[in-house]
Amino acid sequence: MTKRIKGSCTTILVGKKASIDGSTIISRNDDGHEALDPERLVVVNPADQPRHYQAVLSKFNMDLPANPLRYTSIPNSILTNGTWPAAGINSENIAMSATETITTNSRVLGLDPFVTDGIGEEDLVTLVLPYIHSAKEGVERLGNLLKTYGTYEPNGIAFSDNNEIWWLETIGGHHWAAKRIPDDAYVVAPNRMNIDAFDFSTADTMASADLEQFINDNDLNPDFDHYNLRHIFGSATIKDTVYNNPRAWFGQKYFTPAVEQDPMAQDLPFICHANRKISIEDVKFVLSSHYENTKYDVYGSGTEADKTLFRPIGINRNHDVHILQIRNHVPAEIAGIHWLAFGANTFNTVVPFYSNVTDTPASYKDADGTFNLNNMYWLSCTTALLGDTNYDFYVDMRNSFDLNAMSAYRQIQHTTDAGLSRQTKIQTYLAAANQQLADESMRRQTKLLGDMVIAGSEQMKLRYNLND
Length: 468
Hints:
Layout: E1 10-14, E2 24-31, E3 42-44, E4 52-54, E5 61-63, E6 71-73, E7 87-89, E8 95-101, H1 106-111, H2 124-128, H3 135-149, E9 155-160, E10 165-171, E11 175-180, E12 186-189, E13 205-207, H4 211-217, H5 229-233, H6 238-255, H7 280-287, H8 304-307, E14 318-326, E15 336-342, E16 351-354, H9 362-365, H10 376-389, H11 391-418, H12 426-457
Antiparallel strand pairs: 1-2, 1-12, 2-14, 3-6, 4-5, 7-8, 8-9, 9-10, 10-11, 11-13, 14-15, 15-16
């Protein structure tokens, strides 16, 4: 069976001292090879979690623990190739995003080949998120699964709790390495092996037990006096210079503008420090970006060669963007916020759904393969498609929509947070807030589409200047 890989994602991680409000943030564009692939926001309650798991894309199967936690999930709507949960936050406010497809090289695969019937992106959230109680425990559980069952693809996976963020990258069929993101740092990770400098002796790294010996015994290290996992296990190809590295470059340029770098450079840093504290809006902008204010902007005034040279972050193949925020300085009952938007990111906004619920609003939950503007996935895709026809004409409408919509969502969130202490049925209260957020989002997205249709109809080429 040909395995289906969502090989086009972009990840941003933000430590608690690097974020504007002290939250940990893990986020990702869940992209694919095709432009449309409907997704949904659901809650997997313990009774709905399988006790025996059977993969669809491989023969992998295993019995699962009997005590799963509840968790949010963003599965595919069409399950031909499996569930592909993408990301979520469990009932103990542990977040996971899986996965960022990364790169590898023949030296590694010659020694530790992929496992045809191992685990892959289709499986990881289901196998890990319901059973972990900290970000570090997520690394440990996934590491044990990789050791035991192996994997058929290279992936990067993010875990967070309110205190820590860990980033794990798979290596070959059975090996892996993980690094704790410093609290004052951020990461922009495209589809490449991202971890660079790695110290096996520090408490801020973890790896498969034999990884250092594996490197040394097999002469895998091209560097003289240190370990750089990207050099050892990753790639440095021409494709990286146009497909991967420019995305890291633009994100780093946005967060740390004083640092000048080559967008094609193979050694752009993994761990970075911004010139300011990072907001949810900052993360969303970068995950929607297309090299604005550079000659590489696909909607800009550069040459066609420049505009098509690099793969943008915001692209028609964005299926969802999720920003998983674990807040500090608020009660645990409202700490987990699953920000979410569907479709190409240039004409959508993320909505701050509370994760401590047992169900989700129908407009975000019920998408399927049938076009339906009453569903946020299809509504977002339609708006982005129309916006793409004349970006310069529609972008100001988009900007006003984004400001007003995000303001409205934050007002709902502030009101909901403030009213928590008066509630006795907290999950019911938060579910009502989520419904209010979904209704507001649908109303504003529908209005944006309508405004674009009305204004755009005057710009059609099929017109004539003489009237009756």
